[in-house]
Amino acid sequence: MSDPVVEATDVVKFLGQGAGRVQALRGVSLSLRGGELAMLMGPSGSGKTTLLSVLGCMLSPTMGSVQVCGRSTVGLKPEELTQLRRDHIGFVFQSYHLFPTLTAIDNVRLALDVRGDYSRRVIDRAKDALAIVGLSHKTKSYPLQLSSGEQQRVAIARAIVGNAAAILADEPTAALDSESGQSVMSILVGIARHPTRGVLVVTHDPRILPFADRIIRIEDGRIVGKR
Q: Which of 11, 48, 107, 185 has a CA-to-CA distance to 94 between 20 and 30 Å?
């Protein structure tokens, strides 16, 4: 495996204000390297999604530091964080987050549009991403015409079309049956085999643990185990 694509060092994160302020992360250090698929597990309220959001530059740490592809996020302005996220991070969500009025290929192209890429190769890149997830025959289908597993594969294609170095997936199999979940994980494993791309999966799903190169456990905002 190669250098870290995303790395957190001594990250502390508080959420809320006043009497409702809670400490979601308590000195978390974690790295995701190119060429690996790591899984982050822990009970509800343990800090999994907060950590994923910090690693993905959606939230800034209260203390500590995050590096994305070797660049520290400390001191970056909101627009700089947005650019860093767009350039290097792809997200996959449990609920897919597809636009129902757009076809599969247009949902994937959207990730390039927000990067300001309007080149002639945009359609070809979107087609290539859909081919990687096995949906070359579904480019013109709308989300409601796709199964749950196919919708998740479109979401994965959207996450990888911009050549993101880190793919962060939040419960990507939770809404899928066993067969579809296994198919989605096989695709994510293939994506993680690229030496400059890492995949981090937040999950409660014990069925997919065999796909992990590494399992990281978090409880009460602290990393409590790695293997």
A: 11
> What amino acid is encoded at 202 in this protein?
V
46, two tokens: 């343990």
Rounded CA-CA distance 68/73 in Å is: 7
Contact 47, 14 (CB under 8 A): no
pLDDT at 114: 75
Q: Which amino acid is at 187?
A: I
Mean pLDDT, rounded, of the chain: 92
Res. 2 pLDDT band, cuts 50 70 90:
confident
Q: Please tell me the distance from the alpha carbon of residue 156 to that of residue 90, in angstroms, as a whole number.
A: 8
Contact 191, 168 (CB under 8 A): no
Bridge partners of 187, per DSSP, are none
Q: Are 191 and 200 in contact, with CB atoms under 8 Å apart? A: no
DSSP letter string over 169-201?
EESTTTTS-HHHHHHHHHHHHHHHTSTT-EEEE
pLDDT number for residue 38: 97
Residue indicated by tokens 């067969």:
179
- Residue of 76, 62, 56, 57 lying closest to 221 (CA atoms): 62
In angstroms, the first-to-last Cα distance of the chain is 15
| CA 204 distance to own-chain centroid | 16
**Minimal CA–CA distance to 138: which of 115, 121, 119, 157?**
157
Residue 222 near residue 191, CB atoms below 8 Å: no
